[in-house]
Amino acid sequence: MSQTALLLIDLQPDFLPGGALAVPDGDAVLPLANRLAAGFATVVLTQDWHPPGHRSFASAHPGRALFETIRMPYGEQVLWPDHCLQATPGAALAPGLHVPHASLILRKGCNPEVDSYSAFTEADGTSTGLAAWLRARGITRVVLAGLATDYCVAWSALDARRAGFATAVAEDACRAIDLAGSLAAAWARMEQAGIARLRTADLA
Ligand code: VGL
Ligand code: ZN
Predict the structure, then answer these.
(1) What is the tally of structural domains in the chain?
(2) Residue 31 φ/ψ, nearest 5 degrees
(3) C-alpha of residue 123 to centroid of ligand 2, in Å
(4) pLDDT by residue (tens digit) across 27-86?
(5) Is 108 tagged catalytic?
(6) Per-residue pLDDT tens for 137-184?
(7) Is 19 inside a domain boundary?
(8) For a 10 Å CB count at each end of the chain, is N or C smaller?
């Protein structure tokens, strides 16, 4: 699997039970992520990493409700609780994540005006450089796992596919937020895009 990289998405305390934007059962993916990572030479970790007052926060839009969708210059934006504030404990890598050989930690969502569910492309189209980083290492295929299936995992997987990587999602090593059918919609888009839906047992 030397031409395949594992992308572990947003395994951070704020997305785990008790966190600011807790994904139900999110901690269940940590042992699977650790086990999967042991089988890959190239592992990328991502961190959602927002400055205070980030435009994806409902708190930055007085009068708007949590989880409401609004129109931003770059498209639709769900308004989230404040989460993953840069250099806070909730934004750290999850203490239960053990991937010492991960060679890239990519922080995203740093632009105060623009969200970035995807590890490849910010919501306004700005590249993070991840596709080039992977290509420079001879990577042709990526496997994704982490949080949340229907937001950061799905958007990253769709962009990986768009960038030309063979792409698979290890579904049992992901958990979803599932707002108003977002999980089913995300899988429909991923399957339409030719993204494989695997289980960790198929890989590790
Ligand atoms: C995420 C919502 C807001 C995610 C990040 O990691 O899926 N979701 N920021
Ligand atoms: Zn975020």
Answers:
(1) 1
(2) -60, -35
(3) 12
(4) 999 999 999 999 999 999 999 999 999 999 999 999 999 999 999 999 999 999 999 999
(5) yes
(6) 999 999 999 999 999 999 999 999 999 999 999 999 999 999 999 999
(7) yes
(8) N
Cα separations in angstroms, 169 against 123, 156, 202:
21, 10, 11
8 Å CB contact between 15 and 22 = yes
Catalytic annotation on 152?
yes
CATH of the domain at 109: 3.40.50.850
Domain assignment present for 70: no
Catalytic residue among 108, 115, 159, 174: 108
Range of the domain at 26: 4-50+83-203
CA-proximal residue: ligand 1, atom 2 (nearest): 151
User: With a 6 A CB cut-off, is 22 part of the ligand 1 pocket?
Assistant: no
Give the number of the atom of ligand 1 that is nearest the alpha carbon of residue 50: 9
The best mutation among 82, 177, 178, 182 to test binding of ligand 1, ranked by most ligand atoms within 8 Å of the C-beta, falls on 177
The CA distance from 86 to 147, in Å, is 18
> Is 110 a known active-site residue?
no
Please indicate, yes or no, if residue 188 is contained in any of the structural domains. Answer: yes
In a domain, 58, yes or no: no
Among 7, 26, 28, which residue's Cα sits nearest to residue 160?
A: 7
